[in-house]
Amino acid sequence: MKLKPNPTKTQICAFHLKNKLASRKLDITWEGVKLEHTTHPKYLGVTLDRSLNFKEHCVALKRKICTRNTLLRKLVSSKWGAQPETVRISALALCFSVAEYACPVWGRSTHTKQIDTALNETVRIITGCLKPTPVDKLYLLAGIAPPHIRRQIASDIERTKQITDERHPMYNTQVEGFRLKSRKSFLKCTKKLEDDPQTSRLKLWEVESKQKVEEKLPPGHNNKWMVWRTLNHLRTGVGRSRENLKKWGISNENEDMSCICREVQTMSHLLNCNECPIKCNVTDLQDANSKAIKLAEFWSDKI
Question: What local confidence, expressed as pLDDT, does residue 182 receive?
């Protein structure tokens, strides 16, 4: 059975790089019906534009992720929260899955930074970290590879299918000369995977971070939410210490920065405060041993 065209549901769009003709509309009639002209047609969930820079798609995707972040925040608060592993799984299912849909098509756009901004907020929710926390530390604590790495590996997976699967529509397609050097073609910017996707992500992530990484939550995630959140504040050195509150302009300039032990309350001071019965170091925090957990419990309602 042959497909029958439906002019009333057909849309048209002109793809070009001539800014002078950006507002020009096509006037095409098909089977007596004037076709609808649209500047941003959507095909299989991907919003296109005349120059194929995918700006509109990235903007719409950012809004969608922000909406899902709002749902994710329902699982946690400053005083209570679900198990960190539950929050992480929910974030991967709600936010990261939609952020990577069809990324081999648009993943090399310059506008993907907008999507990364929304995903940065997603991992802040998972870890309970504050906004001043460095982004690279957020993904290490969340046990999730950064968005650009996940998009790159997803594109490489598609390239592997294109090279090896005879059923792929682009099978045996060769790279031809490019008229514009600025264009980052799928065939030019991707390669065949030599390892499984998870191993490939970890290798690329380790090269960038220059340390051992894992796609799972670090030790300490099996504790209560407030302990997990405080533990991450101490690990990153970004928490609501009196020094930080003054630096961020939250507290009064004349307010005392002294801790309960009368010394200046910095994040590093919290590890060895005389008023705290527990002392620990950075290694203890990374391992989340009993000393680190007790220290986090002590400061959980203070920072």
Answer: 64
